[in-house]
Amino acid sequence: MYYTIRSLLPDWYEHCNPKLPFIKDYMNVSYTVVHPKLVEDMYRVTFVGVKKPHVTSPLTTALLFFNIYEMRLKEDCLIGDILVFDMNNAAMDDLLKFTPLHLKKTLTVYKNIFCLRAKRVLFLNSIRYLDNILAILKHLIKPKIFQRIEVHQDSEVLKEIFPPDQLPKDYGGNGPSLEELNDGLREKFDEYQNRFDQLDQLRVDESLRPEKLNNDEVLGFHGNFKKLNVD
Questions:
Q1: CB of 221 within 8 A of CB of 215?
Q2: d(CA 3, CA 206)
Q3: Which stretches make up the CRAL-TRIO domain (predicted)?
């Protein structure tokens, strides 16, 4: 699936190289960054947020996630993920962009391709329309995973996860700021540029597959995302 997904989602994977201008521009107005220090129980924390309202791009956010995971396949060692979505600076129209189809595709890649496990999913500085997004997620993920989602009105919960010397400065700690982590991510993308260029050329010849892909509750019929029923 690591290779096959690139053909199943051409609208995503043909335009995901971090050197592309629209991805670089999005990194100037948003954060999708990984903290360098593991927290308790060997969990890795990823922060997602925007610097100002009305700039959110769900697709570009997903592509940044996947590019980061590509590098993590090479370097990282962890037991599980803690995903932190900071709603500060987000507007209602930012959340409206997250459609059921987009969320389903993103969850598929996260679970089936990178085989990562979200131990906690934190929404900080919650805004009103977030309930609608959670209602969609409830239909897309298993109940035991949905129970790991936490909604907080502020960011105080991070002080329970990070010691003061690692908590990002944005949240009152002495650790690296989200902007510093963002700058470090740019350097990492440059370091792995040859790898991303190589991935642009990799595609599966489905005509050589002995048997079709099995039907799957997430992928749909043989990887076809066009059929999606949401109650």
A1: yes
A2: 11
A3: 83-179
To which residue do tokens 């792995």 refer? 192
Picking from 131, 25, 141, the residue whose alpha carbon sits closest to that of residue 87 is 131
Of the ranges 71-80, 178-187, 195-204, 213-222, the best mean pLDDT one: 178-187
Is the pLDDT reported for residue 41 higher than 50? yes
* Token digits of residue 56: 């959110």
Cα–Cα distance between 12 and 132 in angstroms, integer? 25
Residues forming beta bridges with residue 31, ordered by sequence position: 49
Task: Fill in the amino acid letter for 175.
Answer: G
Please choose, from the candidates 43, 113, 55, the residue with its C-alpha nearest in 3D space to the C-alpha of residue 84. 43
CA distance linking residue 123 with residue 148, whole number of Å: 11
> Beta-strand (E) ranges in 54-117?
80-86
52, 30 Cβ separation under 8 angstroms: no
Residue 70's φ and ψ, nearest 5 degrees, are -60, -45
Is residue 225 pLDDT above 50, yes or no? no
How far from 197 is each of 17, 63, 158, CA to CA, in Å? 7, 15, 36
d(CA 219, CA 145): 18
